[in-house]
């Protein structure tokens, strides 16, 4: 290899804003690789939620899950929105991405202590590592950001300040730590709003960003498919509950497939045509993602009910399945579906979500949930999306 070729290999590519109208823009292999580490974190979070629910530690489990999933969602989302605007493919960009991936893996290791002991130390330290890597990315982008330069600087400064506060939060007594946790989460959520509104909007690519959200949704729904497979595994070891366990497996598959259908029915890129819409789309996806991750825990709880391995009441166990499904459907309706649907669809989908939540009080909630979702899908098949621009 010539000396010139070696120099070019280690040369940094100028990090300029990407064209938001670039044709054929799709997820890169690095972005797909980045997503893989989140499979580990999501799987552990869902597993710990399942354990907390089946032991009837409902409130503590839900609080821990909400906090843990915030860390998973926010670190993924921040990288995704940065990448859609400024991604390059040189060695430094890759290296900083790998640092974030390492932080995710350590974060995953800290999920267990957060659920069992309320100890968030490992989560905070690993989270700070991920976010500091993002500070470096934003500072690099600021050099050639053009009209978005002020925004990139505000991102870097805002993220950096909040990370210092996260580290200081670790020294607070337990009484103050919980309150500080809420304040810091709000501060994290505020950084993009301040940066984009006062510093100039960064150039996100609508098709690329919605593709990335769709890919992460597939990862989360995959956890429910895993739970469906676990029902079959349990059935092979428990002849007494063979029929019901196989039924749970089939119904979980039908439910997951229906949620996939509902999610990908509308043209998502139509939902982020403005900063306000993109903010709604990005932030409300926390509910959609968290619900999809919690669904697998709900399926596992149904298996526990059939094998008599849970302390939950029948109604409480039902809600662990129906509540995530209802939240997922209502969330995706709110951020992407309602603006691209006619009156019938906008009546059937939210009404279906409410019925799913209500059927927790019935005798066969999992069956009713699957049936309602199938009816929603049938309506979607019969109706075409109506882009908001055509209304």
Estimate the mean pLDDT confidence: 91
Using the alpha-carbon principal axes, give the shape: globular
Number of strands: 0
Q: Output the structural class.
A: mainly alpha
CATH third-tier fold name of the largest domain: I/LWEQ domain
CATH class of the largest domain: Mainly Alpha
| Spans of at least 5 consecutive residues with low confidence | none
Note down, in words, how this protein is organized.
The chain has 391 residues and is mainly α. It folds into two domains: 27-199, no CATH class; 206-390, I/LWEQ domain, CATH 1.20.1410. The chain is built from 14 helices and no strands. The longest helix is centred in the middle third of the chain and has 32 residues, at 206-237. The chain is globular and about 65 Å long. The model has no long low-confidence stretch (mean pLDDT 91).
Question: How is the topology of this model organized?
Answer:
Elements: H1 3-9, H2 29-54, H3 58-86, H4 91-109, H5 111-117, H6 121-142, H7 149-169, H8 174-199, H9 206-237, H10 242-264, H11 275-306, H12 314-337, H13 343-358, H14 365-382
Helix pairs in contact: 2-3, 2-4, 2-9, 2-11, 3-4, 3-6, 3-11, 4-6, 6-7, 7-8, 9-10, 9-11, 10-11, 10-12, 10-14, 11-12, 12-13, 13-14
